[in-house]
Specification:
Elements: E1 3-9, E2 20-21, E3 27-31, E4 35-39, E5 44-51, E6 57-61, H1 75-81, E7 84-88, E8 91-95, E9 101-107
Antiparallel strand pairs: 1-2, 1-3, 1-9, 3-4, 4-5, 5-6, 7-8, 8-9
Amino acid sequence: MPRHRFGTEHDSDSSSRHPKPIPSGQHLEFTADGEWHASDGCNDQTGRWVTAAGGTLLATARSTTLAFCADSVPIDQWLTTARRAGLDGNVLVLLNAHGDETGRLSPTN
């Protein structure tokens, strides 16, 4: 089954296009059957996703553990607050209902 995995954070500031590496273990992965899997580095996160015309995105999350992680990245929050998704080159860009960017992720190799 095809999977799309992302693992490099970009600054939300659109003037900066220099990726910042996400610390080890942090990632977001989409599967073709509508599942997503992520980790903030300490907690595994999962949920479901669906898209519609024009980049509309709806993602829901299942419950997760809440272990503290000093270098955590709120990937699940980026995804579940996003209402649109698109690509800027090969970078996944997530936007909330107001059109504000919630996160940018580059594909992993």
